[in-house]
Amino acid sequence: MVKYIIMMIFMMPLCFKKDMFWINQFYYFILAFFFVLGFSGSFFFASVGYIWGCDLLGRVMCLLTLWICALMILSSGKIYKNFFFSNAFLFMNLFLVFSLFCAFCTLDLFIFYLFFEVSLIPTLILILGWGYQPERIQAGNYLFFYTLFASLPMMVGIFFLGSIFGSLDFFFLRGDINNLFLYFCMSFVFLIKTPMYLVHLWLPKAHVEAPVAGSMILAGIMLKLGGYGLLRVLSMFSTVGILVNFILISISLVGGVSVSLICLRQTDIKSLIAYSSVAHMGLALSGILTFNCWGFCGAFCMMVAHALCSSGLFCLANINYERLHSRSLFLNKGLLSVAPNLSLWWFLLCSSNMAAPPSLNLLGEIMLINSLVSWCYWTMISIAMLSFFSACYSLYLYSYTQHGKFYLGLYSFLPIQLREYLLLFLHWVPLNLLVLKGEYFSIIV
């Protein structure tokens, strides 16, 4: 793992050299390529150092981080064209990749907490520095204070765990702690980051005000930090978790149905995609909280699928925004007659968002449905409504943007660039080919 971290450190001077924007993006793909070559037949800890190393769960999340961050730069051609703070943008992107990579590669709970919090800083700067509207300051405040409010109790809980186990290494955190207060101290920050319904209000605001790169990293990686942390931490609280998790699962499932109905009333494309993230991650969170093998594996699969699918939809929304200067569904109409090639990508990603085969979303939902129904058969009601409304708002998004009378501003609709087609291709192909390696998602436990 250290060799990848050293390469990121040596990439820092490239961020400040002239005309190195696309070279930086190329190096992220090189990093991802070498990381794929490093996958071995062993699914246990590899590259173990003093505090560095990762199992299959950490490896997949690291690879996802490198892949999404490479696509972030590929999607930000507008920043390169304007030459306005493009060097600072590259440095913030590298800082973010470094903090997320270290968070997923560490074997120590406190180091994970440290980089978990450090990743908030570049994300906040991306929203405040390259956001579109003055409301981005309010969105940044929501993001900052929601995370800060729950992270301080977690720090106290980490020190308490260190005094109990004598170590903060993940390998030694194997006991069963029957303490409700400590359980909420350790898990609440991850519930906010996932996000769970009722503590999700920061997410739509942050997504709507963020630039496309900020939306991609939020949907692709930052939301997954919550699920990753829960998968690491909850094994210590099996007794108390079994007693109280039915409350959190009920909130997540009912909240997912409620958010799905909210999606059907949205007029902003990015807001609709952001609210759909709350519904999908609520289902993944419910799977984790059931404490069974199906739930853990299904949540892991859903996290990877949602990262690629949601990030691709935000790229599509940005492609429209750069041409029409509006995210309103009332103005983004009739695109089928103007850009039929782009309509194909809208259809492919919207169908993946509703878990149509052969996407990875379908595999994740099947495992999560098995997990939740075996936990309590009454969850079938919420799961059925979630699946139905997921199809409803995905079709609503597709039909409203592609059909109808097109807006007069579309007469000046710029052609789609090859870079943008490549960007969408690199989202969709892994999303639909990873289902062929479904065994990876069945052996993390």
Automatic annotation (TrEMBL):
Originating gene: ND4
Keyword set, alphabetical order: Electron transport, Membrane, Mitochondrion, NAD, Respiratory chain, Translocase, Transmembrane, Transmembrane helix, Transport, Ubiquinone
Job description of the protein: Core subunit of the mitochondrial membrane respiratory chain NADH dehydrogenase (Complex I) which catalyzes electron transfer from NADH through the respiratory chain, using ubiquinone as an electron acceptor. Essential for the catalytic activity and assembly of complex I.
Residue intervals of the NADH:quinone oxidoreductase/Mrp antiporter transmembrane domain: 108-389
The reaction(s) this protein catalyses: a ubiquinone + NADH + 5 H(+)(in) = a ubiquinol + NAD(+) + 4 H(+)(out)
Subcellular location, record wording: Mitochondrion membrane
Enzyme Commission numbers on file: 7.1.1.2
Organism per entry: Acmaeodera sp. NCS-2009
Positions of transmembrane segments: 26-50, 56-74, 83-104, 110-131, 143-168, 180-203, 210-230, 242-264, 271-291, 297-317, 329-348, 368-396, 408-429
Biological process annotations from GO: ATP synthesis coupled electron transport; electron transport coupled proton transport
Pfam families, A to Z: Oxidored_q5_N, Proton_antipo_M
A GO-annotated cellular component: mitochondrial membrane
GO molecular function: NADH dehydrogenase (ubiquinone) activity; NADH dehydrogenase activity; ubiquinone binding
Taxon lineage: Eukaryota, Metazoa, Ecdysozoa, Arthropoda, Hexapoda
Keyword Membrane: yes
Name recorded for this polypeptide: NADH-ubiquinone oxidoreductase chain 4
Residue span(s) of domain NADH:ubiquinone oxidoreductase chain 4 N-terminal: 1-103
Family label: Belongs to the complex I subunit 4 family.
